């Protein structure tokens, strides 16, 4: 991110649950290494099969996860709201995108590449990976519950 007011952006990040364990200094480090992008309604953020290892956090708005089935039709999988992240699989496993992400309405997304994460101080990086791990565990739990009892969803 080229120019920003750290106080304004830090306050915005403070209102997003994903960043709750980060200090103000950590948030400034993230802002300097990553960026904030605005997406319009129905604009693709990532497409299934793309080669990319960026990581994303919804700052404002909502995104929709889509997966192409065997019949080549896209199926809605899930919605993610403010404070939720995506792109963890591509980031950690360095694989192509396993699903498409579409803006469910106008949204603001924090984006950070794997390379940029590598430039963060170790303490900040450790906190970021802890939040990513928690997010993955929560998603695994939800997926398991869905498989066991899909009528709850």
From TrEMBL:
<protein>
    <recommendedName>
        <fullName>Cyclic nucleotide-binding domain-containing protein</fullName>
    </recommendedName>
</protein>
<dbReference type="InterPro" id="IPR000595">
    <property type="entry name" value="cNMP-bd_dom"/>
</dbReference>
<dbReference type="Pfam" id="PF00027">
    <property type="entry name" value="cNMP_binding"/>
</dbReference>
<dbReference type="GO" id="GO:0005829">
    <property type="term" value="C:cytosol"/>
</dbReference>
<dbReference type="InterPro" id="IPR018490">
    <property type="entry name" value="cNMP-bd_dom_sf"/>
</dbReference>
<dbReference type="GO" id="GO:0003700">
    <property type="term" value="F:DNA-binding transcription factor activity"/>
</dbReference>
<feature type="domain" description="Cyclic nucleotide-binding">
    <location>
        <begin position="18"/>
        <end position="120"/>
    </location>
</feature>
<dbReference type="InterPro" id="IPR018488">
    <property type="entry name" value="cNMP-bd_CS"/>
</dbReference>
<dbReference type="InterPro" id="IPR014710">
    <property type="entry name" value="RmlC-like_jellyroll"/>
</dbReference>
<dbReference type="InterPro" id="IPR050397">
    <property type="entry name" value="Env_Response_Regulators"/>
</dbReference>
